[in-house]
Amino acid sequence: MSYHILVVEDDLSIQKAICTFLVKDGYTVTAAKDGEEAISLFEQETFHLILLDMMLPKKNGEEVLQEIRQVSPQQPVLIISALDDEFIQIDAYTKRIEDYVVKPFSMNILLFKINAILNRIYDNQNQSIVIGSVQLFVQQYEVTLNGEKIELTPKEFEILQAMFLNVGKVYSREELLTVVWGYDFLGDSRTIDVHVKNIRRKLGNDVIKTIKGIGYKVEKL
Q: Using CA atoms, how far apart are residues 38 and 76, in angstroms rounded to an integer?
């Protein structure tokens, strides 16, 4: 499989060099030049790894990382930054990053670290759940329909994963909010309806069943 990496770097010469190097090594790469663009792409697509610069325009790396963690606590992130202060690095590690690479860096060393991270996280590449024509790859955050990859947002994937891992269980909206967003989510429970509607639009109406007055479930087809 081709891992999908998001490169968030405002220095376009460095961004281009990293992207070119990764593409040559077989990776699928998407690039963002500022924090706002990074968040927008993260909300729309699924990435196996995010390379995140700390000194970014519009939203800095710390703000971007905080927003990523609110949405997906397990999203793999590797920091690339000219900030070499050890306290900044330690603080970044407390936010569950995979590694911290200080600029300037060797492209070969960066590639080695990326390969090590991806191999460690996604070493069980065959772990998947099949329901009808839909196959969900747990470690890779990927879903296919009739063998064709379908792009889900991180939240859509996590909602689907929760139900695929518990086939037949009826989830209330509140339960799904707790599983996916956490106990401290203060938003409207109807946000689940919006995400389920989007999942059905992408994967078909039969994937998730509505249990009137209760919530949703996935049945073994």
A: 14
Sorted by where each begins, the domain ranges of the chain are 4-121, 128-217
Coil vs helix vs strand at 126? coil
Which helix (H) or strand (E) is 120 found in, with range?
A: helix 107-121
What is the distance of C-alpha 180 from the center of its chain? 13
Tokens of 108: 């070969």
Nearest to residue 6, comparing CAs of 73, 61, 84, 83? 61
pTM recorded for the entire structure: 0.57
Q: Which CATH class is domain 4-121?
A: alpha beta
Counts for the chain of helices (H) and strands (E), in that order: 8, 12
Which carries the bigger pLDDT value, residue 123 or residue 50?
50
Band of pLDDT at residue 184, cut at 50, 70 and 90: low
Distances, alpha carbon 112 to alpha carbons 25, 86, 109, 116, 120, in Å: 11, 22, 5, 6, 12
pLDDT at 39 (0 to 100): 92
Quick one: residue 123, left, alpha or beta (phi over 0 = left, psi -120 to 50 = alpha)?
alpha
Per the listing, tokens 């690339």 go with 80
The tokens describing 61, both together, are 């790396």
What tokens does 1 get? 């499989």
pLDDT tens-digit series, residues 94-109: 777 888 888 887 787 8
128-217 placed in CATH 1.10.3290.10: no
**Cα–Cα dist 202/152, whole Å:** 8
End-to-end CA distance of the chain: 27
Where does 122-190 have alpha helices with state H? 154-164, 173-181
